Amino acid sequence: MPEADIALLAEAARAAGKIATRYFKRDLKAWDKPGSQGPVTEADLEVDTMLRETLGAARPDYGWLSEETPDAPSRLSATRVFIVDPIDGTRAFIEGNPTWSHSLAVAEDGDVIAAAVYLPIHDKLYLAGRGEGATLNNLPITASDRVDVTGAEVLAARPAMDPEHWHEGTPPELKRQFRSSLAYRMALTAEGRKDAMLTLRPTWEWDVAAGTLLVTEAGGAATDRTGAPLRFNNPTPQVRGVVAGGRHVQSGLIQNLA
């Protein structure tokens, strides 16, 4: 049972928030990572170091996969692995937008079994455990029960709405909104505040591992863009996009995708 790991992730996520908020809206060092991998800041690295040391000490037999740690093939032989994004939505963090998060997950043999997504500025802590349901600040959350894709509220970047991605053009009247943090997009979807989220390009595991469990434990569905199950701790730590949401809307989006 994942209860002990959920508690561990929750404590670590709050500790990450204390570090990151010291830097938020301050004059911090930031630079672009090589290979068009986006920005990173000194806050990302300090949070990553703390999480790696804290979680590693608590579970020394678990593997480690983080956006800000050089990848090590030893994780592939571990039964359980931490999958971590120290700050998800770094661009928002740099810009002073509060919708960044800490995303922490434990995967066992490819399936996420414990998850935490924390937004320190809003003090919103989303937690989930396999078979245990999903919560926001200790209260149960449930994904959207909307049936009709037409008019659904969907979190996505603008390019995902391009007609080329859809069999018969973009589904009509989709109400697209955006949040920088993929983990927060998935958390809002799990909470039922949005009907679905999608990202259609290859997606790093650390962005979506925790959110995947939040959505499914909230009664929704989360797959890759083809409708295949999401599996984690892959040799190349990416999945083929993500479509997540209430079961009816999620299925409808998958059916419409080219």
Automatic annotation (TrEMBL):
<keyword id="KW-0479">Metal-binding</keyword>
<dbReference type="Pfam" id="PF00459">
    <property type="entry name" value="Inositol_P"/>
</dbReference>
<keyword id="KW-0460">Magnesium</keyword>
<dbReference type="InterPro" id="IPR000760">
    <property type="entry name" value="Inositol_monophosphatase-like"/>
</dbReference>
<protein>
    <submittedName>
        <fullName>3'(2'),5'-bisphosphate nucleotidase CysQ</fullName>
    </submittedName>
</protein>
<comment type="similarity">
    <text>Belongs to the inositol monophosphatase superfamily.</text>
</comment>
<dbReference type="InterPro" id="IPR020550">
    <property type="entry name" value="Inositol_monophosphatase_CS"/>
</dbReference>
